[in-house]
Structures are given as structure tokens and as C-alpha cells.
Amino acid sequence: MMADRNGVCHVMESEVDAQIRQTQTQPQANNNRPNWSNGQCVVSVPSCSSLNPSFDLSLCRAKLENDGFQIPVSDMEAPLKAALDVPSVRRYMVFNSALFHFIMAPVLYVVVWCAVFSTLHLYITVSDYWVLCLSVSLVSIFLTTAIIFILHHSNKEINMNLDVRLIQVNERMVKHKLLVAVADWVQNCTGNMQLYVVYWDMSRCLRALTETLEEHSFVANDIQRKLRRKLSHLVLVSEVTAADPEVSSSDVEQDLDEQRPLLGHEDTGCRASSSQREDAKVTTNYSIIPDLLLPPQAKAYQLLMTYSAAYVKLLVSERLSGPSHHRLRSRRNHCNTAPLCLCQYIKKKILR
Is the pLDDT of residue 276 over 80? Predict the structure, then answer.
């Protein structure tokens, strides 16, 4: 992903220029490909199971080929499996799904009702039993609503465990003018978790966001403070092995010296040291906040990639807030199916 070992995200300006030239000069790949517009859903693949979320990527790739998108396995299936086909990610998708929250709401109400009733029954004596039950029910409804509201409010529009993991996928898919995201909601008391592939030509959004950053270049420090405030909670945590060149040998040797037993034979210590060296891992943090020294074009490209999956998730679930009437939409809106395009969404959420 777009990160170096110092924890500063980095995008090469030449790659961004190549992306612009590719999107501007690329002809129609196939004659059978329809004229897609930004925001149109090309393919949606439902999850195979609600308890073990997984997607049929071969079926998704076949549907894309029928629509004229020839995408190699290294650009779609391999990065999607690396991002989503992880047990910890699957567990997160289950416990953070809308269906799980829908089921937990009445369970939480029953738990709160029993806790409040058992507490008030010890200290308050009421002749009419229904008055006590009614009071407990009202208090339980209020507490349950407050807890659900707090949990919903704390759930960011972009999260580390899913949206940020899809950044590396969208970095590859944007070359084919596609973006992917995972969205779910409850419909008819059943979960609806799907993998969405949306058509998106990034050239216009990249150009518009670059112009905005260039216009605000005289207040670059103010923009950087806004980015830190909005993106400070997005930190990638990864484990680097001792053989990785990014880890200094002195730090690894110091850790091994601390773990080496004080008593023991010399050869045994050498064997233990070699085995510990193979298993030694260092946890490193990577920030996705764009570097202040990056050119506006590279910084705009990084922001677009960072919020691509989160924007598509809100787009397909119709949760983007903005002027709904066509006449009230901005002329710089590059999406006909939503009140805000990707660059406008970034301007609204970060740069304001």
C-alpha cells in the first residue's frame, strides 16, 4: 500500500501522471461494453453465508468479462483474497454487520430491562406492580436507545478493518476504471451483505481535487492539520520479521539478548538465538496521512484511494447526504447517480 517505512504514505508523481494519461487516452476496450457512467454498479455479488462471509470471486470476474472488463487475476482476485479472506476480517464482518446489530438490539433491551428491574425492585416498593414494570420498560428503552446511538455514532464512515484494507485493491482496479467495496444492510429482516464493483473514471475527480489543493497551497499547514485530525485514527499495524531490511539489526539483536537465557551452554544458546532470530517479529505502525512535502497531484490521488471504498459503500447504500434534485447539484459533480462525487465527498469530509 501507499506507505513507506517511516510511516509516511508516499505516491510517486510519475505513477499519477501515467494514471491520468491512461484514463484520458484509453479507447473503448470492447465494442460490447456499454457506455458506463460514474457511480453505476457493474456487478454485485452477495455473500455466501451470513455467519461466514465470503464472495464468489470467480463468478464476479465472469460477470465483469461479460460486461467487457478484462481484468487479470493479479488485479482483482488475488488482492481481494488477501484483503477479505482472513479469519479475523471475516469475524469483524459478522460482528459489525447490520444483521448482527439488528439481532443484538432486542437482546440488549432484555438485558437492560432485567438489570434495571432487579436494581429498582430492591430499593423501591410499589403497591401496583404494573407501575414498576412500566417504569422499568421506559428506562430500559431510553438506555437501549442511548447505547445504540453511541455505538452507531462511534462507527466511523471509514474503518480500518475493511475499507482501508480495500485500498490496495482499488489501486489496481482503478486502472480498469472500477472501484470495489463491501456494503450491508438489513432488508426484510435478513442481512444483505454484498461485494459491489462500481464503474468510476478517476481522471476528473483527480484533476478537480488537485486544483483544490493547489488553490489552498498557501494554507498547506492548515490543510495538514485537518488531515491529521480526520485521519489520525487510521493507522496500519503490521508485523515485520527480523529478516526484513526495514528492521535494524541492532534492535533485533538487543531483543534477542534480552530473551537469551542467562544460564546454558554456548552451543545451545547459539541454536536458540538462531531460532529466535527466525521467529522474531517487530510491530510497526504506518500512517496513511499524506506527507506535507508531496505534490498536490500525488496527495489528491492518495486521498481518493483512501476514501474510495468508503465512498462506494455509502453510494450503493444511498447514504450520501447532499442535494438530491438534479438542478441543485454542483456542476463539478462527476457522478450522475449520487448527490456528491468522490472528490466532493473528500472536500466535504476533510478539507472543510
Answer: no
- Residue 136 C-alpha cell reads as 422499568
Query: What's the start-to-end Cα distance of the chain, in Å?
Result: 26
Collapsed DSSP state (helix, strand, coil) of residue 191: strand
DSSP letters of 1-37? ----TTS-B---HHHHHHHHHHHHH---S-TTS----
268: its cell numbers: 545451545
Q: How many residues does the chain have?
A: 352
Query: How do the domains of the chain map onto residue ranges?
Result: 98-154, 241-283
pLDDT band at 23 (very low <50, low <70, confident <90, very high): very low
45: helix, strand or coil:
strand
pTM of the model: 0.74
Q: Are 351 and 224 in contact (CB under 8 A)?
A: no
The answer on pLDDT for 174 being more than 80 is yes
CB 178 within 8 A of CB 69: yes
Only one residue has cell 480498469, namely 176
Angstrom distance (rounded) from CA 72 to CA 57: 12
Q: How far is CA 170 from the centre of its chain?
A: 11
Q: What is the DSSP string of 280-312?
A: -EEEEEEE-SBPTTS-HHHHHHHHHHHTHHHHH
CA angle centred on 27, ends 26 and 30, rounded to 5°: 125
pLDDT in tens, 150-167: 877 666 677 778 888 899
Q: What is the pLDDT of residue 190?
A: 67
Task: Find the angle CA(33)-CA(35)-CA(39) to the nearest 5 degrees.
Answer: 110
C-alpha angle 75-79-84 in degrees, rounded to nearest 5:
145
For 138-276, strand residue ranges (E) read 178-187, 190-199, 235-241
Please give the grid coordinates belonging to residue 115.
438489570
